[in-house]
Amino acid sequence: MKKIFFGLATVLLVILIGSGYTWYKVNYGGTAYYVQINKNGKEEEKITSDSSAKYKQYAYDIDSYQKDGKVKRVDFNTDHNLRKEAYLKLKVNPTKGVISWEEVKKSEVPKAALEKLKE
């Protein structure tokens, strides 16, 4: 009886961990894309809903490339204008779009993506 209970508990635990991991990957996971900033972002003025305070955002609509060179058009906003000629690594979620970005060195951009960025 104890063996059956521990067996069922183990199976249940594996199912819970697997479904939790799957949920996390769907909501917070993404694919890496690379871009190079060549122009200023489009300045937009936004209003917060809480205090009606105004703030600026900069919108970017740009082609991005995976490590194998596949292209994807992405758009994202930042609270400051990004440095021209900067290389960025974007994390793109299929349902949420760009969920994070970080500046990377040119040497960290995969070769196929770098070749597409130079075109």
TrEMBL record:
Source taxon at top rank: Bacteria
InterPro entries on file: DUF1093, YxeA-like_sf
Gene3D superfamilies given in the database record: 2.40.50.480
Name of the protein in its database record: YxeA family protein
